[in-house]
Amino acid sequence: MIKKVVIIGPESTGKSTLCELLAAHYKTVWVKEYAREYLLKNGTDYTFENLLDIAQGQVAAEELAVENARDKTAHQSAIAHLKSTIPPIFIDTDMYVMKVWCEFVFEKCHHWILNRIVERKYDLYLLCNIDLPWVKDELREYPDLVTREKLYHHYKDIILNQQVPWIDISGNYDERLQKAITAIDRII
Predict the structure, then answer these.
(1) Residues contacting residue 92 through CB under 8 Å, at least 6 positions apart
(2) Tens digit of pLDDT for each residue in 40-52?
(3) Model-wide pTM > 0.90
(4) What's the 3-state SS for 106-135?
């Protein structure tokens, strides 16, 4: 069975970098944040309905990655007696991120997103803290520390009130990677 590790947190907290580093370390795949692709293609003037499109695109990307990982694992199993551990896949954002985004910007959330939160199963959450400096790019919206702290606490409240194991990821990039590897090695 393929383990799924989700990396969440406010913008500019190193989620994508951590996913990429973890995928390289474990020689596996990671699911990129679909919102980046969507907003780069369609512009940053998004609506509440656009967030549903983004959420559906994120789930589709995740499903494709899981299916590809299963195919690869089945192929490896047929060729060799499958390694003792199957590498996890890493997911840059999930429906919790979409929930926070919807509620923070529009003060409501799509039922489709809420239903996916209930249905989808994961093995570990890595919650990225805001202790990295904010880095400007064309898609980021909240550079001020007060808003970053508020968003971080929204994520932490969600994580505290769900059943999947999680850890807080803080420190510089190397420290974050080591904390994540330690936590992941416990579940695989």
Answers:
(1) 7, 15, 16, 19, 30, 31, 32, 33
(2) 999 999 999 999 9
(3) yes
(4) HCCCCHHHHHHHHHCCCCEEEEECCCCCCC
Q: Which residue has the tokens 């896949």?
A: 89
Token match 């926070």: residue?
100
Strands (E), the chain: 4-8, 30-31, 89-92, 124-128, 166-169
Domain locations in the chain as residue ranges: 4-187
Residue 3, both tokens? 């383990």
Are residues 102 and 48 in contact, defined by beta-carbon separation less than 8 angstroms?
A: yes
Fold classification of 4-187 (topology level): Rossmann fold (3.40.50)
Q: How far apart are CA 147 and CA 149, in angstroms?
A: 5
How far is residue 94's CA from residue 90's CA, in Å, rounded to a whole number? 11
